[in-house]
Every structure is written in C-alpha cells, then in structure tokens.
Specification:
4-stranded mixed beta sheet, alpha+beta, Rossmann fold, 13 helices, 5-stranded antiparallel beta sheet
C-alpha cells in the first residue's frame, strides 16, 4: 500500500531479490515464478527488468545527483515468489500484490475495490516515502499537508481500518515500511524515522491497537543502499534544442531543478546554462487539482555502482514467521475445540484452517517450524534495532518442534 511514485514497485523488487540472493538460501531457495500478463494494453514488467533498470541507473550515474522517479503504476499486478527447501521437492508460493497508487488517491469509485482487497488479505505492507516524511518537519518545500497527501496517510487509515480479524480469530499483520532510508541509516537516525512514523500514523495505530489480533510493526528499509537522499527542489521542466550533425536539430525536454547558482540540473545530473533553453512548469506535480498544493522532486546522490539494499528481506522473514505462528495457533485451537466439543468455535477455526492450510504449499508446518527456528538461531530475523519496532504483537500458542 502507498501513494503514487513513493517507490512501492522498487521496494517490492528489492524484497524479492533479497530473498533470491540473500543469506537465507541455505534454508530456503527462491525463484521468481511470476507469469507476466497484459492488462489494458500494458505488459507487466518483470522483477528482473526492474532490478536491471536500478542497476543500470547506478552504473551510469555514479557520483551524480539525480532525480529518481520510478513513475506511476497504473495497474494492479501480482508477483509470485516460489520458495523451496534445498534438496527437497516441496515448494510454497508467496503472492505479492503491487497496488497502483491511484487507488489510494481516488474517490469513492476506487474505495470498494480496495476494501475488498483489505478484507481478503492476511498481510499489509505500507510503503512510506521517508524523505517526504522527514522533510515535512523542516516545513520548507514539504510541509505536513504535502506529506499527508503524497504518502496518502488519510486514505491508508480509511482502508486499514477495514481489516477484519473476525473478532480475534483471524490474525492479521500490518508492517509500516519507511523506504529510501539510506541517508538516515548513515546518520544513525533510524530510531527517529520510526518515531516519526508513530507520529504521522498515530490515528491509524490507535485504531489498529483496538483490534484483538492485529500485529503492527515498523521496519525501515534501505531500498537500494547506495543512493542517498540529498534534497528537495521545486519541480520544473527544461526544454532546449540539441544540434545533431550539420543540418539536424532535436527538441529535448527533461525534468529539472534550478540550483542556487542559477544553473539548471537535469534529471540525469547534467548541469546546463538556462539561457540555452526554456524553463517550464511541471503540471504532473500538482497533488490536489485546482490548488497550489504541489510536491517537490526528490534528488539523490549515487555513491557507488553497487546495488546493496538492506533489511528488505526482513519484511519477508517477518511474514513467514507471522504466518507460521498463525497457522500453528489455528491448528491448536481446532484441536482444543474438538476435545472440548465446542461445535461453534470448532466450526469457525475449521473454516479458517481450510482457507489457510495450503499457505505453505507442499512444505509442512513441521518443516517450516524447523526453518524459522533455524533462522532465529542464525540471527536472520531481526525484532529490534535499526529502527525495527514491534508495536502490537499477537499472542500465539506455540508447540515445540
């Protein structure tokens, strides 16, 4: 969940890639099994293509200050990550749904679709644009109103409060994931990032705390690792004529910023003399139509060519841990209700068990329990530090492996 252009798709790519290439491969191997589809005339982009774009950006712009604009996701896409135990044939699949940001910015027309999604899913990841959230405190180009609109704070509150935990019988997990945290990680300010999440989403957190079984976590992530937020600048377009060969000219246009020295910085980091072209307004940055509420552009410094996301895999690890605990708890409840001849409660838990028993595919609860316990022994699952915070934890019944 999250607004347009906050970076949901890039974060999702980092999550999936970290699982495929990360340290957990000794316990679980992973591969992207997404079958790419075409909707409304648009071909779904693969996770590999998203990663190639990011890595190419690093290669081509190292040392520069650039405009990172992942564009809009206009269509809802599903991505599938298949996990398996090394030397075993059993597999499971995690389905990630990348919801287009317009759903969170739209009116009543989009609300019904989102509410249905919210009621049917077990886990929710709220992607937060950290630069906008942090810079809103400075009240310069970003203020609380712009941050609220850009990160869709009110809309996300509306949708998250539609979660149905079935009076505590069907536990849910909500992870607030501040992304693009590289700058604040380097400055040892991740706890401050977490604190600001608590402040900005206070109303939502209070509402979620009233549920009997909704676990709430905050996990800051570094989406790329080597691109650090530098500044916000008012958004403009620069148009100029580029001479090609002897008789040919090419009309060029790019997003830009006006620097303090009067020069124009293009989206790729190139600086130009404004006298050779024309500076134009950028209509795409209007957040609320027919108002002067606009967003600035976020500029980032590319430090190295290395793609090195950090803590993205924690989102997937926490999901596995939560779903394992949830399923074991349901199994124990079902057995207890059956022994106590409680027909009504047994009917409820059997229904939930039937709908969730295949969540690990061919991997048994026993096998997954061994894997998750081993992940804890290897300190792969982080429950605190680096800004990670468990705000509300579901109490589950445990069995010994």
């Amino acid at each position: 969940m999250g607004g347009q252009r906050v970076g949901k798709s890039s974060a999702l790519a980092a999550i999936m890639d970290s699982f495929v290439t990360g340290t957990v491969s000794c316990l679980l191997t992973a591969k992207d099994t997404t079958v790419l589809v075409k909707k409304e005339g648009v071909k779904q982009a693969s996770i590999d293509s998203k990663l190639r774009d990011v890595k190419q950006l690093l290669q081509e712009h190292v040392g520069r200050t650039i405009l990172v604009d992942s564009g809009k996701t206009y269509i809802q896409w599903d991505y599938r990550l298949e996990l398996s135990i090394p030397q075993k044939s059993e597999t499971m699949t995690i389905v990630f749904t990348d919801v287009n940001g317009e759903y969170f910015e739209g009116g009543k027309k989009e609300q019904a679709g989102i509410i249905e999604l919210v009621k049917s899913y077990d886990v929710f990841i709220v992607a937060i644009d950290t630069p906008f959230m942090m810079e809103a405190r400075a009240r310069k180009l970003v203020d609380p109103v712009v941050n609220n609109k850009y990160n869709c704070i009110d809309s996300i509150h509306t949708f998250l409060t539609q979660i149905d935990d079935n009076d505590g019988n069907n536990a849910k997990l909500v992870i607030f994931a501040p992304i693009k945290c590289e700058k604040w990680a380097k400055e040892n300010q991740l706890d401050t990032v977490t604190q600001y999440v608590k402040e900005d989403y206070k109303t939502t957190l209070i509402a979620l705390s009233k549920y009997k079984r909704v676990q709430v976590e905050i996990i800051p992530i570094q989406t790329i690792g080597t691109i650090v937020f530098q500044e916000h600048k008012e958004a403009y377009r620069f148009r100029w004529t580029k001479r090609q060969w002897l008789f040919f000219k090419k009309e060029c246009q790019a997003s830009c910023a006006i620097l303090d020295n009067g020069r124009v910085r293009l989206s790729d980091g190139t600086e130009m003399d404004p006298a050779i072209g024309e500076i134009l307004d950028d209509p795409s940055v209007v957040l609320i139509p027919n108002t002067d509420i606009v967003r600035p552009n976020s500029w980032f410094k590319v430090l190295t060519k290395t793609y090195k996301p950090h803590n993205c895999e924690q989102l997937a690890f926490h999901i596995l841990d939560f779903m394992l605990s949830k399923l074991i708890d349901l199994q124990i409840q079902q057995e207890e209700n059956h022994r106590n001849l409680n027909a009504f409660l047994n009917f409820v838990t059997i229904g939930l068990w039937k709908s969730l028993k295949d969540v690990f595919g061919g991997i048994s609860l026993q096998q997954m329990s061994v894997i998750v316990d081993r992940m804890y022994q290897l300190n792969l699952i982080k429950k605190n530090g680096e800004g990670i915070l468990i705000l509300h934890k579901c109490k589950f019944k445990k069995v010994q492996v």
